[in-house]
TrEMBL record, chains A, B:
Alphabetically ordered keywords of this record: DNA-binding, Transcription, Transcription regulation
UniProt keyword annotation of Transcription present: yes
InterPro entries xref list: HTH_LacI, LacI/GalR-like_sensor, Lambda_DNA-bd_dom_sf, Peripla_BP_I
CDD domains listed in its UniProt record: HTH_LacI (cd01392), PBP1_LacI (cd01574)
Limits of the HTH lacI-type domain: 8-62
Top-rank lineage group of the source organism: Bacteria
GO molecular function, one term: DNA-binding transcription factor activity
Protein name: DNA-binding transcriptional regulator, LacI/PurR family
Upper taxonomic lineage: Bacteria, Bacillati, Actinomycetota, Actinomycetes, Pseudonocardiales
SUPFAM superfamilies: lambda repressor-like DNA-binding domains, Periplasmic binding protein-like I
Source species of the chain: Lentzea waywayandensis
DNA sequence: GCCGGTGATGTTAGCGATAACACCAGGTCG
DNA sequence: CGACCTGGTGTTATCGCTAACATCACCGGC
């Protein structure tokens, strides 16, 4: 019964393989000048001891970690959650660990504190999912030199940014309704300080302008089904409303329920389009036509941009946009009138 | 224009404060034997230099990191996503960083690989969200000595485990339907190899047994609205079905739509109860009665169990269960017959 | 007035890697 | 055939911290 001794270190491997620890290091880092036979001996020793390099020691001497910090809101909104999950997977495949710093609210202080925590950890780079303006503001405080990429952040700021092409998605959705024969399209929007919501408003308006359709007032909501329901109750009472584009699927769900309660049939009386394509959208009543963002693509672009900064210190094209696609289901029909 | 010099280290702070680096270390670690005046001088120097301790160096000498590794599936299922988010927040408050290792599928090899990646990082502890049996199997390979907590894992295994009391939630839901006057309750279940699903089946059956109600066959599905819809199509054709307990809210959504298509009104003709209380459940048609797990509580219990293991090496009570609550809305009514 | 204890601080020795340089054998070349 | 390169390897210094021990002033007690 012996005391658990410490984990094997490089010198233990070296001793077993009959070489110096430096040679072990060379094998580990794939340096060219190692004889094949030596390499094999070292690898065998590594395996035999179940040796794993000590990252702390490596980080200490190189000054670099293999860690990426992500700042995200503590919410289960479908978009951010999908993005985060996709990013973690992509980063993992690239050999980076991902440390997630959750933030309760997206205000300047919380974001700044989360970024600081990551800097304390000496992460190689930071990704901030900063979907609203106060979150974006916080990034002004981050000193240059820390590789940083913003996702869904402020398009008017100069930080490297990856985002879904909200305007295009909204344009397509609105256009689809107009093409179905509707005279105009109403819009239930997400919170005004969210860039996603703003971009969708912009795309919606552009589509209406393009066909000289009348632009009705934006119906403001947050992202919740509850607020969509309230917006829907209002719209359901207005007979001139025949088409509604909602800023996300949950808003659309609320609208759907309000319409159903008021006896306005979707899509016969009113057409509805959402945004996000949550997995259950196909099982709303009726199945929802919606816009699907490609979160995996956003994640990959983000990682690419970050890795570029980490290695070069600079970035060639610091703004990237990923186009979403319209998914047609049964919530859109020509107006009945 | 001078070259960016290296980050300040402890010796820089020491020099500025006119003390030795060891004294700086003592201040940082709140050692008692430091004169108040010295402490203040050191703190001032730390602030002036914007000094941050190098965690790699600390980890190297102490052999411990302040990192917790989490293994989770790459999915956006509401339950796991909520749990993860809650855990990250709780761990952050306790001063730990959380590294998330995503896994595409919950099979033994992937889980084992993810655990290994975390061990390479020398995390202080590991949390595995292991909701099905193949995931749980992988943990057999983890050597003792690595603090490990399983969430939603195998109740029959001896690893420390935290879980929602699935059986109680399901029992309450089923009981609620029986109390409303239904002769029996049908069940649309999640995948059979998920412990969550199994626990819910068990609770459902217990409630039926307790009132000597007939136990209809389990309708098997996965967690998706699509599979709920298929199950619902079948159940809708059976006039004797008046009450359905679904293993999660998305299944319930699919059932709701199938019922609506077949002209069976919920709750007038058929009552439905779900599980999870997703935020939009209140806006289904009709608003869904469901069971709400307390993910924050699960997260806290998990963290507590893990920290106990990290400090003591042992655990007093390695199994913890968190009771969910029934949320009553409008999808349950007495049978019409 | 000397001794031992105690509080405040400094000094030294690692932790486990990589970097930089030193070294040595063997081949190439003028 | 000696100078020079070059591939393979070892040696030493170093990263920034904490642990352990050393030091020193000051205190009270006999």
């Amino acid at each position: 019964m012996e005391k658990t001794s410490r984990d094997p270190a490089m010198t233990d491997v070296a001793r077993l393989a009959g070489v110096s620890h430096q040679t072990v290091s060379r094998v580990l880092n794939n340096h060219p000048n190692v004889r094949e036979q030596t390499r094999l001996r070292v690898k065998a020793a590594i395996k035999e001891l179940d040796y794993r390099p000590n990252r702390a020691a490596r980080a200490l001497v190189t000054g670099k970690t293999q860690l990426i910090g992500v700042v995200a809101q503590n919410s289960t909104l479908y978009g951010p959650a999908s993005l985060l999950s996709a990013f973690e997977e992509a980063a993992g495949e690239a050999g980076f660990a991902v440390s997630v710093g959750r933030v309760k609210v997206l205000d300047r202080d919380s974001i700044a504190a989360a970024v600081e925590r990551h800097r304390d950890q000496r992460v190689a780079g930071i990704v901030v999912i900063a979907p609203n303006s106060s979150a974006a503001d916080a990034l002004a405080d981050v000193p240059a030199g820390v590789p940083l990429v913003t996702v869904d952040g402020d398009p008017d700021r100069s930080t490297p940014l990856v985002t879904v092409d909200q305007a295009k998605g909204a344009f397509d959705a609105t256009k689809h309704l107009i093409d179905a024969g509707h005279e105009t399209v109403w819009h239930v929007s997400g919170p005004a300080d969210w860039f996603d919501a703003a971009g969708r408003v912009q795309g919606w308006r552009a589509a209406l302008d393009a066909t000289s359709a009348e632009v009705p007032p934006v119906v403001a909501a947050d992202w919740s089904a509850a607020s969509g329901y309230r917006a829907g109750q209002m719209l359901a009472r207005m007979p001139e409303v025949t088409a509604v584009f909602c800023s996300n699927d949950h808003l659309a769900l609320g609208v759907l329920r309000a319409m159903s309660e008021r006896g306005r049939s979707v899509p016969h009386d009113v057409s509805v389009v959402g945004f996000d394509d949550v997995p259950e959208a196909a099982y709303f009543i009726p199945p929802l036509t919606t816009v699907r963002p490609d979160f995996a693509a956003v994640a990959h672009e983000t990682l690419g941009l970050l890795l570029e900064q980490i290695s070069d210190g600079e970035t060639t094209r610091p703004r990237r946009t990923v186009a979403p696609t319209l998914v047609k289901r049964n919530s859109v029909a020509p107006p009945s009138r």
